[in-house]
């Protein structure tokens, strides 16, 4: 998963997160200057493939279409 704040790419996150199918995963990503008007875009990149857009959001719980589970973005 990748995330970036537009125009201010100072995102702090682990470079890689892996899990097995059917197993949950927690991914932490932060930005030192995130404002309440900023949005974070979330992407999934599977091995050997390019990034695929998942969702965007600011705060709270964001449902991810076509995927099981939830994506939670907090600022």
UniProtKB/TrEMBL annotation:
InterPro entries noted in UniProt: Ig-like_dom_sf, Ig-like_fold
In its UniProt entry, what is this protein called?
Answer: TVA4 protein
Q: What organism does this protein naturally occur in?
A: Psophia crepitans (common trumpeter)
Q: What is the lineage of its organism?
A: Eukaryota, Metazoa, Chordata, Craniata, Vertebrata
């Amino acid at each position: 998963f990748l995330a970036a704040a537009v125009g201010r790419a100072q995102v702090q996150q682990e470079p890689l997160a892996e899990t097995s199918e059917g197993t949950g995963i927690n991914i932490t990503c932060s930005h030192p200057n995130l404002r309440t008007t900023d949005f974070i875009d979330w992407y999934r990149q599977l091995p050997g493939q390019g990034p695929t857009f998942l969702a965007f959001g600011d705060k709270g719980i964001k449902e991810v279409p076509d995927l099981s589970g939830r994506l939670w973005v907090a600022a």
